[in-house]
Automatic annotation (TrEMBL):
Protein name: BZIP domain-containing protein
Chain residue ranges for the region called Disordered: 1-26, 47-89, 135-186
Compositional bias of kind Low complexity: 1-14, 171-186
Amino acid sequence: MDARPSATSSTAPSFADEGVYPPPIISFPQGDVDGELLSLFVMASGPDTPPGYSEPVPWPETAPSSMTSAEPSPALLPRPPVDATSKGAARLARKAELARASRLRKKTYVSNLEASVANLKAAVEELQTRLAKRYPKFPGSSQSPPAPVPESSSSPAIINDEPRKVRRKMSSSSSPGVPVDSSLDPPARQRLSAVLHALDMADLCLAPPLQVKFALWSLDQPDAFYDRPGLWLSLLQTEIGMSPEQMETLRSRRMSVRAERRNLAHASLMMKEIRDCAVDFVQVLHRETSRIQALLLPDQIARLHAWVKSTDWSIDVLPDQYEVPTRQDG
């Protein structure tokens, strides 16, 4: 209840008697007034202490626990000073660890190399042992080097003949046995090259493979060759794995194989003769053609070419061995 003095009242009201105090003239914000200042203000306000008034609690010197943080951040904590001795020790420890790791890697690498060398040595020794078992006179053994295999007297020239490439080179224009006319013009040389190429292809198709050549050669040997320990027995038994019955059957075919081998050698010789004949034929053909053209004029040669091309029976001149067919009157 707010009791204010009336304007018509002659006497001033007493606030102390009624228990009502005037409001403070100066107000302080909360938290800016300490206990001593508040006591002085109360004492200046009046001699009596208002009812319900209690002494102010002094402001704590430290903040309450609820206003403080639990743990400070490790990054904010001051670090102890690091001296040069501890830095050097850490650097040496790190270098020692790296050196140990490097030595371990080198040791592992060397161990792997030694294992690889041991495996290779074992493989080489195994290979030498196998070769020594198959071929008793292997160069790696303590025995003398193997002697050359004797050839039979009936071996034809096809087996011991020089390589086909060398034969082709020898049968070219520089061959002393089959001279080629140096006056051959480009068309004649082109014709000769085409003929020789066709003969080489025919010879290549007729020639047996290397395996067949070796089989024919091995079956055209004397009887002592098959009972001798070495190439023949090692090949059939170890490499191919043939049984004794198969080996005996193969040996029984020697006579027929020898006859066929002779036929192959004869065919090879015939191909060589055909090649020589082809070279001679081209040379003679070119020589005779040159003689005929030397007798004719250029326009006469052109007329001859046109007449031969337009005449049908002139195409049959080559099979009839260049003889003019006789006309039969019927």
